[in-house]
Design goal:
The chain is mostly beta strands. The chain has a single domain, classed as Beta Barrel (Thrombin, subunit H), CATH 2.40.10. Helix content is 14%, strand content 38%. The strands form three sheets. It has an eight-stranded antiparallel sheet. The longest helix is centred in the first third of the chain and has 12 residues.
Length: 263
């Protein structure tokens, strides 16, 4: 597309370097519907002499979470020791999410997924969207009515085979007085709930990577729930944000084909 910043490739490299292991694709189990992307976010609670205190959540669009059982695709690079790609079934999925008011965003504490890894003898090796990258009020105020280049890090639905490969979707966002921030145009199926980034120029040939917020469902242009509002909503939840019932996580047994030998 035209009007890309001169550091376009560097922005994509920064997104992959900072958040390449932060995203998880999910969908309603055994059905071709409610495809979405979730991602890890570290909420900064306080700074202490010993270091930062953070709470970790999965974050996504609220609407796709309203299913009883979901299937998460676990990529090999997200766990140690590394495994082949695995699908995890989460029952009581809808009950495990806390919806942040009318933002259209839902969050889930990391408890259930970390407990599953501990039971199976492996650990998560993820990236997280950090508080330092998540947009502030000043970052959002810096957007005006002019479309700016933007990037969605999501998992689209592979044509014909349902593969959930990670992709950086390049487009534009714009802020309007009435509707807030929106993605200009439509997103590939499966990228709802994904993080949206921009690169803010700092002069000469440098930029600051900013995660603007979460891509929401929409007809035509997709609304974006911005991180300044998400951060405020999370602060209002504490210290009760971890009280939602934790979903049960189990591996999904691969479907047997007729030519496979049964043990």
């Amino acid at each position: 597309m035209s009007d890309l910043p001169p550091f376009h490739s560097a922005i994509i490299d920064a997104i992959i370097g900072h958040a390449g292991r932060a995203t998880l694709p999910f969908q309603r189990i055994h059905r071709s519907e409610q495809y979405a992307t979730a991602f890890w976010f570290n909420e900064l609670v306080e700074e202490t002499a010993e270091g930062a205190v953070v709470r970790q959540y999965l974050v996504t669009a609220g609407e796709p979470t309203r299913v009883e059982t979901a299937e998460i695709t676990l990529r090999p690079q997200l766990c140690a020791p590394a495994m082949s790609a695995e699908k995890l079934a989460m029952t009581d999925f809808a009950q495990g999410w806390t919806h942040l008011g009318d933002l259209g965003v839902a969050v889930m504490p990391d408890t259930a997924l970390y407990a599953h890894a501990a039971r199976k003898g492996w650990s998560w090796t993820t990236d997280e969207i950090t508080d330092g990258v998540a947009a502030t009020e000043e970052d959002i105020a810096g957007l005006d009515g002019t479309p700016v280049p933007a990037y969605v890090l999501g998992h689209d639905v592979g044509a014909g085979n349902g593969a959930r490969e990670q992709a950086v979707v390049v487009g534009q966002i714009v802020r309007t007085g009435e509707d807030g921030v929106r993605w200009v145009g439509t997103l590939p199926q499966g990228c709802v709930g994904a993080p949206v980034f921009i690169g803010t120029g700092l002069g000469e040939n440098s930029f600051k990577l900013v995660c603007v917020g979460v891509a929401l469902p929409g007809d035509g242009h997709h609304p974006i729930a911005t991180f300044d509002r998400i951060r405020t909503a999370l602060g209002a939840l504490a210290p009760d944000a971890d009280t939602a019932p934790a979903p049960d996580v189990q591996p999904v047994e691969p479907k047997r084909r007729w030519w496979q030998r049964r043990g």
